[in-house]
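Wait, mind explaining this?

_____
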Amino acid sequence: MTSRATWVWADEAAPPDPDALAALVVRERVSEAFVSVPWAGPTPSTHRLVAALRGAGARVAALGGDPAWVEPGPALAWARRVAAAWLFDGIHLDIEPWGRSDWPGNEQRLLDGLERSVRDVAGGTRLPVEIDLAPWIAQTHPSAFDRIVRRADAVTLMAYRDRADDILAVSAGARALLAGARRPWRIGVETAPVGEPAPAARETFADDGRAVLERELAAVVARLDARDGFAGVAVHDAAGWARLAP
């Protein structure tokens, strides 16, 4: 059975209901959840979510990231607080410097910062580190992409399209580089609305529903091979997944 993962963004003011989250994990056959952890470290709510997810049979990684974490220090400081809690099976970084306003013209500096942050977290915590990467980085900055993935233990490719052919097309270059780096990778898809005021239909399953998501993921999985590093799929995010129409 193909491994399935999901992101769980836990708003401190209104965290997810642990029982509802556990039910989603069982229903959708999720084997790993990436649970967001506040800057100051795990809270009582974090502990309740982790307990519920573990009770449902899922591994749990600490999810964190901010585009500012390409600067020295903050990623490692957060990760050390995470590791000190002895609560998680790994760390999942979602830093995405390409979303910064100063990205144009500073791409190499920011990607170098991302590489440094991944290296520091991996070396400073001894926990397995998985990172989110946009697949197009492999085409525009292949050397930086290769260096970053070699610092991580695994990668999730945010191949945000809603049809199998498109998902495979946008991730092809990144998948080839990952195979060469001998790093396991997941294919990530989106279920939350993208774009304002209406969803960008090609990027998310929000307007398609669960049946279409299952159909297209099955088509993706059928065309990928574990021998190339394929380690499963990841759905962004648990809240969007739960809201999908049948």
The CA atoms of residues 179 and 220 lie 17 Å apart. The chain has a mean pLDDT of 96.
